[in-house]
Amino acid sequence: MAATTAQPMGSLPSGLGICTTAPDIFYLPELVFGGLVWILVASTHVDPPNPLGWVMFVSVFCFVMTFLWMIIFAAGCHKNSSGWAAADFVYHGLAVFFYLSAGVDLAYITFQKKDKEFKNYQIDIAAVVFAFVATLLYFIHVILSAIRWKHF
User: Fold this and answer.
1) pLDDT by residue (tens digit) across 141-150?
2) Around Cβ 14, how many Cβ atoms within 10 Å?
3) Could you tell me the pTM of the whole model?
4) Is residue 56 within 8 Å of residue 112, measured between CB atoms?
């Protein structure tokens, strides 16, 4: 019989504990959907460059930072302090704001390009959907991070 250990409310997980505790269980889906946004936007013609450059920046920045954040937690470098819980909340709140703004920009640009090549339009629609899914995942993560930070 396998023994299960519950994570105390005021502590941060480390090691494989990040794969079993909320909000840290959202790291992998955030990486997957953020990476899909990055890949889909990069696979189409970047026109206009400025707003889509913002979308690319957001998706690459959040992908890299989420990966680094996951590695920091998995390696146990956070030393279980409330400062790390606050930083987790702040980073994921910033990611929600970034992805929401990028998703709205991407949706607006996609709507304007509806009369262009159909295949690129479909790819852009998929990127919009994945951007909003990533926004939702980061939003759930920030809410759960705020609850965890409150209990520290």
Assistant:
1) 999 999 988 8
2) 17
3) 0.86
4) no
